[in-house]
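Tokens as discussed.
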């Protein structure tokens, strides 16, 4: 048996299945939590006597929150930042919050840097995951602040549309931000919203009903 810092365990038994099961029991994990490499198939000699033992190497798959933390902490070191990464995995949703010194540099204009980092983190996390993990990345509570800002903008622009009786086209926004505008005004009986244009220049238009 060999157990190293990479969370890898090697086991020998009469069959591959038995060797894998021994490793799983020792690691206290499920089959889906590990990757199995068969080192020796095992064989029987003359008259059915065991000639060669089966040997496997079982490697523990990294957890999504561990993968995300390592990736983002590496980026923070590049930026020479002492910000902290906090991860919370709930089902297939991984929520990540970055707080502390210079965390704001990861946000960018209208959160574009934050969105790019969220996308990259999702790629890294799902490369190691059998099931798709949805990654939600935030820094200094930016997402909530931005949502409130967009909600206020939506109401303000809707009031202008009602006053001037002319449609207003907002600046280009990411899909999640356009969704906030649509949701904020969906119950307003006097205005309607729609998205026009192509990404990345798709915009929300607010008009009278």
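Sequence:
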């Amino acid at each position: 048996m060999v157990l190293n810092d990479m969370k890898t365990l090697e086991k020998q038994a009469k069959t591959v299945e038995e060797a894998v099961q021994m490793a799983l029991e020792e690691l206290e994990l499920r089959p889906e939590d590990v990757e199995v490499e068969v080192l020796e198939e095992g064989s029987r000699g003359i008259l059915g006597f065991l000639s060669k033992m089966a040997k496997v190497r079982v490697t523990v798959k990294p957890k999504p929150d561990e993968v995300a933390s390592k990736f983002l902490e590496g980026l923070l070191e590049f930026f020479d930042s002492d910000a902290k990464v906090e991860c919370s995995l709930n089902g297939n949703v991984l929520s990540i919050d970055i707080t502390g010194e210079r965390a704001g540099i990861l946000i960018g204009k209208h959160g574009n840097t934050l969105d790019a980092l969220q996308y990259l983190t999702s790629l890294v996390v799902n490369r190691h995951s059998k099931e798709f993990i949805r990654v939600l990345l935030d820094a200094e509570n930016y997402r909530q602040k931005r949502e409130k800002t967009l909600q206020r903008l939506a109401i303000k622009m809707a009031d202008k549309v009602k006053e001037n009786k002319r449609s207003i086209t907002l600046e280009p926004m990411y899909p999640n931000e356009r969704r906030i505008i649509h949701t904020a005004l969906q119950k307003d009986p006097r205005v309607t919203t729609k998205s026009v244009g192509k990404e990345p220049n798709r915009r929300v238009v607010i008009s009278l009903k």
